[in-house]
């Protein structure tokens, strides 16, 4: 099985390649054809579906919805030219910084 990062990096590349395909043959191309607002709305819908699955679905349902959410997040990142590597670097930067401590520091500003 590929590592989690391998999977996401490969999917990011696939999405970039499929953007220029025919919208009749490619869901990624179809989303881009419909434009950024549709891509963003789709991500929001998938987020809500993941929330619902997290609250009332079973683990298989949450797993499937989480996959949809990650996929559509990568589509939005690609559409805005934000590399996955930048998101991962931001997470690395936060590593070891407690979310509570970070929030408290922000409130002091
Ligand atoms: N990982 C995914 C992936 N996950 C989910 N989806 C699609 O995302 C859509 C999710 O929408 P919904 O669940 O709301 O279902 P829907 O009712 O069909 O959607 P709408 O009509 O409401 O837009 C479905 O059409 C799924 O098939 C994905 N489509 C593509 N990929 C990856 O992207 C690659 C390129 O795909 P194409 O661009 O289609 O070639 C594929 O090989 C996969 O690796």
Automatic annotation (TrEMBL):
Protein name listed in UniProt: Phosphoribosyl-ATP pyrophosphatase
GO CC term (a single one): cytoplasm
UniProt keyword annotations, A-Z: Amino-acid biosynthesis, ATP-binding, Cytoplasm, Histidine biosynthesis, Hydrolase, Nucleotide-binding
UniProt-listed Pfam families: PRA-PH
Family that this chain belongs to: Belongs to the PRA-PH family.
InterPro entries: HisE (IPR008179), PRib-ATP_PPHydrolase-like (IPR021130)
Catalytic activity, as annotated: 1-(5-phospho-beta-D-ribosyl)-ATP + H2O = 1-(5-phospho-beta-D-ribosyl)-5'-AMP + diphosphate + H(+)
EC numbers for this chain: 3.6.1.31
GO-annotated molecular function: ATP binding; phosphoribosyl-ATP diphosphatase activity
Keyword Cell membrane: no
Pathway as given in its UniProt record: Amino-acid biosynthesis; L-histidine biosynthesis; L-histidine from 5-phospho-alpha-D-ribose 1-diphosphate: step 2/9
SUPFAM superfamilies: all-alpha NTP pyrophosphatases
A Gene Ontology BP annotation from the UniProt entry: L-histidine biosynthetic process
Source superkingdom: Bacteria
Annotated source species: Aurantiacibacter spongiae
HAMAP family in UniProt: HisE
Subcellular location: Cytoplasm
EC main group: hydrolase
């Amino acid at each position: 099985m590929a590592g989690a990062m391998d999977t996401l990096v490969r999917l990011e590349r696939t999405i970039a390649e499929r953007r220029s395909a025919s919208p009749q043959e490619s869901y990624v191309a179809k989303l881009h054809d419909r434009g950024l607002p549709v891509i963003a709305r789709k991500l929001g819908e998938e987020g809500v579906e993941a929330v619902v699955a997290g609250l009332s679905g079973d683990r298989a349902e949450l797993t499937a919805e989480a996959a949809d959410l990650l996929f559509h997040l990568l589509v939005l990142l690609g559409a805005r030219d934000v590399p996955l590597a930048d998101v991962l670097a931001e997470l690395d930067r936060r590593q070891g910084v407690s979310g509570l401590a970070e929030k408290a520091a922000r409130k002091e500003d």
